[in-house]
Amino acid sequence: MMHHLKVFTLIEKPFGEGFKDAQGLARFLETSAIDTCHVKVDHYAGKKELRALQKEDPAHIQSLTIEILETATVDHRAGFYDAVGALRDVGQNHLLFMLARIFHATHSRSYILSRLVPAQDHDAHHFARYDGREGKETYLSVKAHIDDPELRHIDITLRSGKALAENRVAIIVTYTSGETKEIVLEGGHEAYMNILEDAIEGRLEGFLSTEEVLAAWKFIEEVERIKEKKEILCYPIGYDQRFFNEKAA
């Protein structure tokens, strides 16, 4: 008796180079070999801290800050960063995945991202590159809210940068009571192992849907239109980003 073997193809971020490209890629995969299951993965889905997130009552949340800060420069990835920049490198995937994952108990990730709207005040957004770099940004700070009656009161900040003073990946939740909770994500290869085990066991809820990917690209392209009208600022290598907004103002 022959056993039918199901083949999984794991596609790591980025999925496509933009909204339309991702649409075309999704259509292509849907019509490809029927014996292959294509799953889109952001390896942050394997991080134990995100998997352990408890249900939050949105009514008690005042603000959320999602940040990925690194001391490393992009000199070894210069060609890639010249074409992509921080917004597409980690904004379209890791930052948005972490944000959407917070509401997993009550809302789908695709719903959260489809309702995510950048702040209309262009002064709320900052883009910069460290000294000596040219081209795309190596730092971003983007403000947004979720266009939903139960969620729109939450102030959201998405922040990431290279060549900063510290290595840190975190979700900071500030409650209406004034209390703050920080969820710090650790590095390591455990996340990749968790992702592979999920695929082998058929646990696909952590993988990205096409709707989620397209919603993420739509938001990022809206932010890019804002970025086109903004000056790209400069900061020294080793900068403490906590003072960035004060300087940018």
Q: Care to describe what's here?
A:
The protein is of the alpha/beta class. The chain is 33% helix and 24% strand. The protein is built from eight helices and ten strands. It has helices at residues 19-30, 48-51, 78-83, 85-102, 109-114, 190-201, 210-227, 244-248; strands at residues 7-12, 36-41, 61-69, 116-118, 126-130, 139-146, 155-161, 168-175, 180-184, 233-235. Strands 3, 4, 5, 6, 7, 8, 9 and 10 form an eight-stranded mixed β-sheet that branches. A two-stranded parallel sheet has the order 1-2. It is globular and about 45 Å long. 36% of the residues are buried. Mean pLDDT is 89; it is low at 1-5.
Note the main attributes of this structure.
single chain; 249 residues; alpha/beta; Dihydrodipicolinate Reductase, domain 2; 8-stranded mixed β-sheet; two-stranded parallel ribbon; 8 helices; 33% helix; disordered N terminus
- Low-pLDDT runs of 5+ residues are 1-5
Give the C-alpha Rg.
Answer: 19 Å
In CATH terms, the superfamily of one domain is: Dihydrodipicolinate Reductase, domain 2
The helix tally amounts to 8
Order of helices and strands: EHEHEHHHEEEEEEHHEH
